[in-house]
Write a structure and sequence with these properties.
The protein is mainly beta. It has 5 domains: 111 residues, Single Sheet (S-adenosyl-L-methionine-dependent methyltransferases); 120 residues, Immunoglobulin-like (Sandwich); 59 residues, no CATH class; 91 residues, Immunoglobulin-like; 121 residues. It has 2 helices and 42 strands. The longest helix is centred in the N-terminal third of the chain and has 30 residues.
């Protein structure tokens, strides 16, 4: 029978099928546990930037990645800047009905001299399966970094100190790595592209040579990604400047590569040199001081820097004055005989001055002194002045006058004095009962008037002065209707006595005599009298008997304007003699 054989065949076939199915079941998970790294490089003028993408080919399991990079520089997440080494690689996820592979994206930066980068990714999945991907290598070709192009930038600025345009040119090698050789084009090519200057008449004039471009010359090397800055000075009247530069790069082929560019810089108007417009004005007075007004007048385009110098090495500090501005300086009298104004170290036009004395700086001085009955006028014409004619017109009472003609009409008693410089004249006028006003004119011009006012102390001071056997006794009294009076009694020997008598007050002062005595009387600062002591004659007689009590002698004198007279009183009684003489006082300041 064939059935047993068939059963054996079916058993063998079933066993193989189950074995294959088990192998597939065991093999499928291992094949899905792997990463897929890829890299893309871009260069900058200084470095390479490689963007790495690591993908997870499992369905939903996550993995921890261990990264080994050559060169060993960090690979940072483009999302948050964290280091991808040790990061968690997400699994697949479904978005909008489609499966999306989990991935990590990061950036690695290496020097521009690097020729290749390599990344090895080791993954450990959440189910414990580990897998190391094949190394991913990215080659870096510096010849493709940047482009072999030249770029020119230009800008112009007016230099107001010189009146020229300063043009700044920047010539850049746009290839990041390869060095280029520069060449300034002044003769080759069409005229419209040659390096040139646009003159005020709008005509372009080609540069005679490249030497006018300072900082860049033919044959200069410009490294990859670098630039050279050069300057050019152009006259202020020009309209524009044009520069053409060619860069050349060495090539691995027979012919080098080159590129050129033309750049034009238009000027904004004309560049005019800044200039101040300094002026000075001088004003002096009779003291000798000079005020110097410094001005930088309208139209100036630069501030002025002034220094004012005077005689004797006198000099001001530098003074800056903006356009249309002013400043003042005072030169002292000691330095005003020779003044010079300088701007930026150069004397300015009409900037010198010398102070000189003038006759009007020495005017006639008229002063007055007033006594109880006079007005004393003093005319003082100082040296350095001019001869002056002074008219003094006394008018009784108090009469105003505005002009010389009005003054002449008031009185015919005018006194005219011609006073030479350096001399003085004195004129006295008696004061009447109604007072006095003295009108003054100098060289025909009204100089005001002097009105008499009774000085203090003109009222008489009453009292008595007595000669005693020992000296002088002053017994003074200021009348109730008098005025405040200052008195000084100065003896010929001893200390002076000073005091003030107010109206209604009295004062008694005694001075001891030593053989002789004189007391000088000063009233309100003026000496009005001198009192000489006269010893009474009976001071040397013996004293009378005690049984007969003596009586004192009495003397008295009325004194007006400190003239003191004595009256000897004859003794009344038997042996009674006068022991003293008394004199009355009536003092008046004159």
């Amino acid at each position: 029978m064939k059935r047993p054989i068939l059963r054996r065949l079916l058993a063998v076939t079933g066993s193989v099928t189950l074995g294959l199915m088990g192998a597939v079941a065991l093999a499928s998970p291992a094949q899905a546990h792997h990463t897929d790294p890829s890299g893309f490089a871009q260069c900058t003028p200084t470095e390479w930037v490689i963007t790495w993408t690591i993908k997870n080919w499992d369905t939903d399991l996550t993995a921890t990645v261990d990264l080994v990079a050559k060169p060993d520089t960090p690979i940072k997440s483009i999302v948050d800047g964290s280091n991808l080494d040790g990061a968690t690689l997400p699994g697949k996820s479904k978005k909008n009905g489609k499966w999306v592979v989990g991935e990590l994206v990061g950036e690695q930066r290496v020097p521009l001299s690097t020729d290749k980068v390599e990344l090895v990714v080791k993954g450990t999945w959440s189910n414990g399966v580990k897998h190391t991907a094949q190394p991913e290598i990215v080659k870096l070709d510096r010849s493709k970094c940047g482009e072999r192009k030249v770029d020119i930038l230009g800008k112009a600025k007016c230099d107001y100190d010189t009146g020229n345009w300063n043009v700044t040119w920047t010539v850049a090698n746009k290839h990041y790595t390869d060095q280029a050789t520069a060449n300034i084009i002044t003769q080759d090519g069409p005229d419209s592209q040659k390096s040139a200057i646009k003159k005020a008449n709008n005509q372009w004039v080609t540069l005679a040579n490249e030497n006018v471009i300072v900082g860049l010359k033919d044959g200069d090397k410009i490294n990859g990604g670098q630039a050279k800055t050069a300057t050019q000075v152009v006259e202020g009247s020009a309209k524009a400047a044009r520069l053409k530069v060619q860069l050349e790069w060495k090539s691995n082929f027979l012919k080098n590569e080159s590129d050129s560019q033309v750049r034009v810089v238009e000027f904004d108007g004309s560049c005019v040199k800044n200039t101040p417009k300094p002026t000075a004005a001088f004003a002096s007075d009779c003291s000798g001081e000079v005020t110097v007004t410094l001005k930088n007048i309208a139209g100036a385009t630069k501030k002025a820097v002034f220094v004012v110098k005077g005689a004797g090495d006198w000099a001001s500090e530098p003074i800056e004055v903006e356009a249309d501005g002013t400043a003042t300086v005072t030169v002292p009298a000691s330095a005003s005989s020779s003044i010079t104004v300088l701007e930026s170290g150069t004397p300015i036009e009409k900037g010198t001055y010398s102070w000189t004395d003038k006759t009007e700086c020495h005017p006639v001085d008229i002063t007055s002194e007033q006594t109880c009955d006079k007005v004393i006028v003093t005319i003082n014409n100082p040296a350095g002045g001019a001869a002056a004619t002074v008219v003094l017109t006394p008018v009784k009472g108090s009469a105003p006058a505005e002009t010389e003609q009005a003054v002449k009409a008031l009185s015919s008693d005018a006194i005219t004095k011609t006073v030479a410089p350096g001399t003085k004249e004195t004129v006295e006028f008696e004061v009447g009962e109604t007072g006095l006003v003295v009108h003054t004119t100098v060289n025909g011009e009204q100089r005001g008037s002097i009105t008499w006012k009774k000085p203090a102390g003109c009222e008489p001071i009453g009292g008595e002065v007595a000669d005693t056997c020992d000296g002088l006794v002053f017994d003074l009294k200021n009348p109730q209707d008098g005025s405040k009076t200052d008195l000084v009694l100065t003896p010929s020997k001893g200390e002076a006595v000073s005091f003030t008598l107010n109206p209604g007050e009295t004062k008694k002062v005694e001075f001891k005599a030593d053989k002789e005595l004189t007391v000088k009387v000063t009233l309100n600062g003026k000496v009005v009298d001198e009192i000489v002591w006269e010893k009474p004659k009976d001071c040397d007689k013996p004293s009378p008997s005690p049984s007969a009590p003596p009586t004192l002698p009495k003397t008295g004198t009325n004194v007006t304007i400190f003239v003191i007279s004595g009256l000897l009183l004859v003794a009344v009684g038997f042996a009674v003699f006068m022991l003293a003489r008394r004199r009355r006082l009536n003092m008046t300041e004159v």
